[in-house]
Specification:
241 residues; mainly alpha; two-stranded parallel sheet; 9 helices; 59% helix; elongated
Length: 241
C-alpha cells in the first residue's frame, strides 16, 4: 500500500478537458512531448509512476508477493535473478499474453508522450510514426527488463525467479514484441474506429467508455501520468451543444 500512496503523491494533476464540437473532422495531433533536454527525465519519471502503480497493485492483491517481502531483501533479490531455462514462468495465459503486452505498450506510450513530435503519434505510413514506434519498442524492452530483473522488479518485490518454476523467457519476449504490436493496433483503432464513432456520437460517457475499452494500454499510461483514463492530447472529450 505505500507504493499506491506514492502513486497518488507523485501523479501530476489530471489534465483539463476543453470543449470540442461534435461532428467536425478529426484534427491532426498537435506538437507534443517535452523539450529534448527534458524528454528522458520525463519518460523516466512517468515510468517510475507506472512501476509504482503496478507493484502497488501486486502488493495489494497478491498475498504471495507480500509474503515474500519477509527475509533478507538484498540476498533474496540476488537469489531471484536467473537466466531462464524454460519458456513458461508459471503465470496464466492471460497474464503472459494479455497483461504483460498491455503494461509494455503503456510504457511505450509514456516514452512517446515525452518525446513525440507532430506526425509521430497518429497511425499511418509516415517515417516519423514508424520511427517513434521503433524507439518506443526499445523503451518497452528496457522497461520490461527492469520490471523482471531490476532493483524495482518482480525479482526484488516478491522474489519471482527464486524457484525454477517461476523462471521463463515468455515475458522477456512477449512484453516488448507484442507490446509494440499492441501500440500499433491501438493507434489504428483510435484513428479508424474510435474517431469515427466520436464524429457521430456526442454522449460523453459513451465516448469515454469506447476510448477505455479499445485502448487499455493508453488507460494505464494516462493513469500513471495522473491524467483521466480517457485522455487524448489531440482531442478533448467534452462536447459543446
Amino acid at each position: 500500500m505505500p507504493l499506491v500512496f506514492a502513486v497518488c503523491t507523485l501523479a501530476r494533476p489530471a489534465a483539463a478537458q476543453d470543449p470540442v464540437t461534435v461532428g467536425r473532422p478529426s484534427l491532426p495531433p498537435p506538437v507534443v512531448g517535452a523539450a529534448p533536454e527534458r524528454a528522458w527525465p520525463t519518460a523516466m519519471a512517468d515510468s517510475l509512476r507506472l512501476l509504482a502503480l503496478e507493484h502497488g497493485l501486486r502488493l495489494a492483491f497478491q498475498e504471495k508477493t507480500r509474503r515474500e517481502l519477509e527475509g533478507a531483501f538484498v540476498g533474496d533479490y540476488l537469489r531471484s535473478v536467473h537466466v531462464p531455462d524454460d519458456w513458461d514462468d508459471g503465470d496464466s495465459w492471460f497474464v503472459n499474453y494479455v497483461g504483460h503486452p498491455i503494461h509494455g505498450a503503456a510504457a511505450g506510450y509514456l516514452w512517446r508522450d515525452a518525446t513525440g513530435v507532430r506526425g509521430s503519434t497518429q497511425f499511418g505510413l509516415s517515417k516519423r510514426y514508424w520511427a517513434s514506434i521503433g524507439k518506443s519498442g526499445a523503451w518497452i524492452a528496457g522497461y520490461s527488463l527492469q520490471f523482471e530483473f531490476g532493483p524495482i522488479s518482480e525479482a526484488s518485490i516478491g522474489n519471482v525467479g527464486m524457484t525454477p518454476d517461476t523462471r521463463g523467457w515468455v515475458d522477456h519476449a512477449v512484453t516488448p514484441a507484442v507490446g509494440t504490436g499492441l501500440m500499433v493496433a491501438e493507434d489504428a483503432i483510435d484513428r479508424y474506429l474510435i474517431r469515427w464513432i466520436e464524429d457521430r456520437v456526442g454522449n460523453r460517457v459513451f465516448r469515454a467508455s469506447i476510448r477505455m475499452l479499445f485502448n487499455p494500454s493508453r488507460v494505464l499510461a494516462n493513469t500513471a501520468q495522473g491524467r483521466l483514463p480517457w485522455h487524448r492530447a489531440d482531442r478533448p472529450l467534452m462536447t459543446r451543444r
